[in-house]
Amino acid sequence: MESLMESTIKTPVEMLAHWVDKLGNNTYLRQPINGQYKDFSWVEVQQKMQQIAGALRHLGLKPGDKVAVLSKNCAEWFITDLALMHGGYISVPIYPTANADTIRYVLEHSEAKAIFIGKLDYWADQEAGVGGDILRMAMPYDTMPAQYQWDSLLEMGQPLIDAPFATPDQTMTLIYTSGSTGKPKGAILNFASYGWTCKAVVRDLKTDIEDRLISYLPLAHITERVAMEGSSFYSGSSVAFVESLDSFVTDVQRARPTVFFSVPRLWSLFQQNIIEKIGYKKLNFLLKVPILNNIVKKKIHEGLGLEHCHLLGSGSAPIPPSLIAWYHKIGLNISEAWGMTENSAYSIINYPFDPAKIGTVGRAIEGCSIKQTESGELLVKSPGLMTGYYKQPEMTAACFDPDGYFHTGDLCEIDNDGCVTITGRVKDNFKTSKGKYVAPVPIERKLAQDPHIELLCVIGSGLPHPIALVQLSEGASLQPREEVRTSLKATLDSINPNLESHETLDAIIVVSEPWDVDNDVLTPTLKIKRHVLEKRFSERVDGIRGGKVRWEEEL
């Protein structure tokens, strides 16, 4: 059944031709430049796709060659991706925030012959990672030097018109995982797995040509590549982009999206901004007054630019249930979803949104099967699964069970309704010096209820008891230290009595340096690298006892 279904799925290039016939000169992509939209119709996107693919042929690149893409999201990213599919090339996206070492590794490991370079904030720091012998082509933005510029590529050689459509089992892309542990791995996705997943998103979320999407999460990550770019291919939705971080709110308000996906950290920042503008007590009071309730909610929705959304989503990392419950209270229902690079990012979702299932990631989607190992690890199977890791056959073989289910590495619980709660990572569990294993994620979920905390990580490998490292929210960092200390101590004292004796936290340590991608604490998808924090803090916190709250400089 699955192979029959796969054979009927059209490729993105075929779907583009479909929308060209149906929608023609209607706007497909909207790229803000200096605060004004530059619009691309379906016809223009197809023409530019054919021309870029023709230019690559002219430059001697052959079907099957790997071509990297290093850029922030923009209309040209979509056009380049389509051109690579059209020409039979294998795309290798790289995070626009990747450092030079990561860029070098991905280019060398994938054996990329060429690279498209686009919108980048720190290209001067990244250029060392792009070898001198690789062919560089630049999108029309301020970026590192390249042999060929976008406008010249659009005039080079002949447009590639009559290329055969890709076959379902043809490799479409190598997506390198963001690497929260060790070197990134290149997941091989073919046209069948990508197309099946994109169609499943459109089927489940019911998007169509009336929908307006906004693409700002990294396209190098599979979630954005499927949920925004991919779903637009199969639904005919238009897509707008964000010009810069400074213009983010304005860009969202102008795009008036009907579907909006984000990551937990951004949902948390939105919440903080709302609370800081209105005040926590005042907001709670206003929401309790019937005549004001809807007015306040409408104002908040408009302020975020989300008043037209029929779907809000969160993924890529766990989101505190309390945060989803808070948004539900103000009339914004965030459907948490679960996926991985290896399964094309879409397998489980709480949609239609069910408030009774907040804290779970929902149920497996149609066409996806899930099960648990005896140790509680989540296994998934769907037509969206990768074919393997590039150049790593042993690792590939170890990831699949005899029935073709993929070992996700996530620990879970599955309730009687089939809803899944992720309880941690197999590799995250650590052993204390007392020889007892601790699962940090459930403890972190409890700590995350404290509104003073923006990010946190529980460490403890080789320590007598776990220690919680926390980064304060922006609002909390402005409050008197002793007030914050008292609140964190109250949180700690309320959690510890409900933990097993070997799990109790010896301390909360407030870190002084913000965690971000640049200092290697966060992956490009904003997941925390626990092993990095273990290495930095284990020796410094060893010896702290008795449920204390300390600032890093007090150690």
UniProtKB/TrEMBL annotation:
Residues 18-390 form the AMP-dependent synthetase/ligase domain. It catalyses: a long-chain fatty acid + ATP + CoA = a long-chain fatty acyl-CoA + AMP + diphosphate. Pfam families: AMP-binding (PF00501), AMP-binding_C_3 (PF23562). GO terms for molecular function: ATP binding; long-chain fatty acid-CoA ligase activity. InterPro entries: AMP-bd_C_sf, AMP-binding_CS, AMP-dep_synth/lig_dom, ANL_N_sf. Coiled coil: none annotated. GO terms for cellular component: membrane. Keywords: ATP-binding, Ligase, Nucleotide-binding. PROSITE patterns: AMP_BINDING. This is AMP-dependent synthetase and ligase. It comes from Shewanella sediminis (strain HAW-EB3).
